Amino acid sequence: DAGVIQSPRHEVTEMGQEVTLRCKPISGHDYLFWYRQTMMRGLELLIYFNNNVPIDDSGMPEDRFSAKMPNASFSTLKIQPSEPRDSAVYFCASSLGSRIEAQYFGPGTRLLVL
Amino acid sequence: ILNVEQSPQSLHVQEGDSTNFTCSFPSSNFYALHWYRWETAKSPEALFVMTLNGDEKKKGRISATLNTKEGYSYLYIKGSQPEDSATYLCASVTQGGSEKLVFGKGTKLTVNP
User: Fold this and answer.
1) Per residue in A47-85, pLDDT tens?
2) Which of A92, A112, B17, B24 is deepest in the core (most CB within 10 A)?
3) Residues B13 and B109: beta-carbon distance below 8 Å
4) Helices and strands, counts by H and E, chain A
5) Residues of chain B numbered 59-78 and touching chain A (CB < 8 Å)
6) A71 by DSSP, 3-state: which?
7) What's the CA gap between A61 and A108, in Å, rounded?
8) B101 contacts in A (CB within 8 Å)?
9) Residues A72, A53, A39, CA angle at the centre, nearest 5°?
10) Is any Cβ of chain A less than 8 angstroms from the Cβ of B10?
11) Does A9 contact B at CB distance below 8 Å?
């Protein structure tokens, strides 16, 4: 298996622009997680899905952030409009289960908003 | 709010030294504790998932213990090697409610040759 695939790997954009991050989980995994990594806050969960349904989006910072999972093999995280404080590394992870199953992380998308 | 604390924040050891670091988590409603290894410029990789009080897991020179009653876990590395240099993250998950992992900020280990 190719593992969790994320695109793009790097994104540089200007404040106010829309940014879309993409994730393909490992086939057969029914949980998908979106994380954000910053120096100040570490690795924090934004939202997770179970069987394509959003379960907990309490970590989504504000209405500018939205996530979808239209099918079992694809998810997007969208920021509209983007702001400089959104600059971070965004990771997608997937797992077979939830609490006791290891999560497999993608390579991340490094986002810089100017 | 579930707070997961790790100490020390960073650690420098010499090749061949054995080392250990700590993860503290709230013991109430505990369900599982995860350890991940995160090398620079890569993504986190799972080491262990532990659920039972007194549990001990081992993978090569790395082992971990769990005390759910007092809310801590230790990660041990025996005979550190330069390739062990990484940030080691722990994450706790509780019973009921959300199934999300709450991560600590990690211990950054540097092993000098």
Assistant:
1) 999 999 999 999 998 899 999 999 999 999 999 999 999
2) A92
3) yes
4) 0, 11
5) none
6) strand
7) 19
8) 45, 103
9) 90
10) no
11) no
